[in-house]
Every structure is written in C-alpha cells, then in structure tokens.
Amino acid sequence: MTDTVTEQVPPLAHYRLLGNSGLRVSPLCLGCMGYGKAWQDIMGEHTEPEAILDTYVEAGGNFLDMANKYNEGETEEIIGEWMKKRGNRDRMVIATKFSIGMRKNDPNAVGNHRKNMFSSVRDSLRRLQTDYIDLLYVHFWDFTTPIEEVMSSFHDLVSAGKVHYVAFSDTPAWVVAKANTIAEFRGWPRVAAYQGRYSLSDRTMERELIPMLRSEKIAHVPWGVLGQGKLTGKYQRGMQPKIRGGITQMTEKDFQLQDIVTDIAKKLNVSNSQIVLAWMLNHQPGTIPIVGCRTTAQLKEHIQALNIRLDAEQMKRLNDASAVDLGFPHDFIGQTFKQNPIIKYRGNENIELDDIPLQ
C-alpha cells in the first residue's frame, strides 16, 4: 500500500465565483491603492508593494484591485511591471476603474461617458502592460451619462476583448438595478460586481444596496472593510483624529463598538482588525472584502481572519452594537416576508414560506 500525501491548500486558494459569472477569485481581494509615490502625503509611504504582492500570490491570491487615478497612474504601472517580471498576467484577475479625470482642463477627461471610458481603458492597458482588463468598474456615478450609454459602451469593450467583466462602484442601488435590467434585455454583459463602503462601523449598505446585490446576484466587493481603522483601538476617547474615507471623527457609538471588539479580540487572542474582518465574513457569507496593507505582516494577519469563527453570542453583541436604522420602507414592512407585519394577518398568520434574510 502506498502512502499518500495530502497537499495543503493555500488559504486564499479557496476560490469563489464572482457574482453571476464563472470567474474564480480569492476570498480576499488585495487593494493596491497606496502603491506609488504621488499620493504619499495622503496615503503614507508603501515601501514593499512587490513583497506584499508576492506573499498574496504565494497564499493562493489572484484578485487585485486598483483604479486609473490611484497615485495618478503609478499604481497601475507598478502592477504592470510586477506582472511582467513574474510572467503571471494570465493568473491574475485585474480589477481597475475609470471615471475620474486624468487630464487637466479637459471637460471630457472625467465622467462615465463613452469617450472617457474608451480613453481611460486605452491608458490603463498601456500602464498595466496588458491587452485586457478582467474587471472594469465605473468608479463613481456621475449623474449625467445615460445608463444606456454606459452599458452599451461596456458591451463594445467586452466584444472587442479589451474588458472581460463589468462592474460598478459608489453608485446608487437603483442605477445598478436598472443597468442590469437593460443589459439583460439587450443581451449585453450584466454587472458582475459592486464596490461600496461597508464595515462593522458603517452598515448603511444594508438599507438598499446589499438587498439589491443579492437579488441581482452581483458580487459584493466592499472597500473600507476595517472602518478606516476606527475599531482597531488606536483611537481613544478625547481624540478626534481626521480619518480618511469621508469619515472625520469617532462617535461615542464607535467607541462603544470598539470596546466590544477589543473584549472579543482579547478572549480569542487575536487582533481587533481580525475580529472586524471576521465579523464581515461571518455576517455576509460570500462577500469578497478588499484588504489593503503596508506590510506582509499585515497581509498575513488579514488572511488569518478567514479561520476565525465567531459564535452566536459574539455575533449578537457586534450586530446589536453596530445596528443601523434601515429607514422607510424597511422599518415599516421589514426586509423579508417573516418581518412583514402587514401581510400576515386575518387568518394568514401561520403561512410558512422560504424566507432568506437580506441583512
């Protein structure tokens, strides 16, 4: 009898499908926003991007996130040069974005219209040293370009082989749902993924966006998953530091939530950041969080969060402390059949239906 050796699967090699597509991606997406020097005063210095990228790939990772505007194009250039050195372009799933202007004093160098989309993709391909982009996001909704123009332009890029999948970031739920419907009826590529700000300290996406993503079978690829560091313990009461990401202060609710995170982290002998990330992976199964890091040690810490299982009591503490007011109509009719106090009445109280919670 021959002994067999079971090869251990790398932690990020437990791939999942990206939304309604057949594309396999890692359970953590590596955010590359800080790679480059142009935004160093804002983002701080990232001294080891290649080491972080190599560590990510060694762990089975294949999903990289960036944008044309990040570090004024330097981020894409760094990724392109790294892929050229490693010869691993086909292995990587490259996600980038367009919308923000890259040329000054040019009214058409910004926005979601066809001209800017096509020129942005052309320039991203050059910087990335590749002939295709795996996943192209609208970076921000511009409230001017017709949805039909965006989706038809996406279709043309996919048909030309320059883009494989299309996505939206920082866009209202109704726009994405409408875009998906138009694409389905026209035979155009449907939306594969969505990026928005979502974390234990900011669950407002649960009002409209997350129910929409589940209904449309769109992958949830959130940014800001560590809450701009609000719950790591580095901010104490009495401090009001300026925090990036549109949030400028810590509230008493944030401090109370941080206290709970710290308590659970100490009991499990892990870091606050790992608890925050583990909460998301437990609370929203199938979510593909974007994690950014300055060192390989931080990346390894994030990866270890995949193994943390929070029990029901711990999840309840975190959920209760971070709960967000869902607003109308959800505070009136709920978000599921079982939550709806209006439908189940006059003899229908005992109706049983499959009921998948949307929060």
UniProtKB/TrEMBL annotation:
Q: Which CDD domains match?
A: AKR_AKR9A_9B
Q: Which residues cross the membrane?
A: none
Q: Which Gene3D superfamilies match?
A: NADP-dependent oxidoreductase domain
* Domain named NADP-dependent oxidoreductase: residues: 27-321
Specify the signal sequence span: none
The question of whether Ribonucleoprotein is a record keyword is answered with no
| Pfam families documented for this protein | Aldo_ket_red
User: What's any one GO cellular component for it?
Assistant: cytosol
This entry's Gene Ontology molecular function terms read: oxidoreductase activity
Keyword NADP included in the entry's annotation: yes
Family of this protein: Belongs to the aldo/keto reductase family. Aldo/keto reductase 2 subfamily.
Quote the protein name from its UniProt record: NADP-dependent oxidoreductase domain-containing protein
Q: Mind giving the lineage of the organism this protein is from? A: Eukaryota, Rhodophyta, Bangiophyceae, Galdieriales, Galdieriaceae
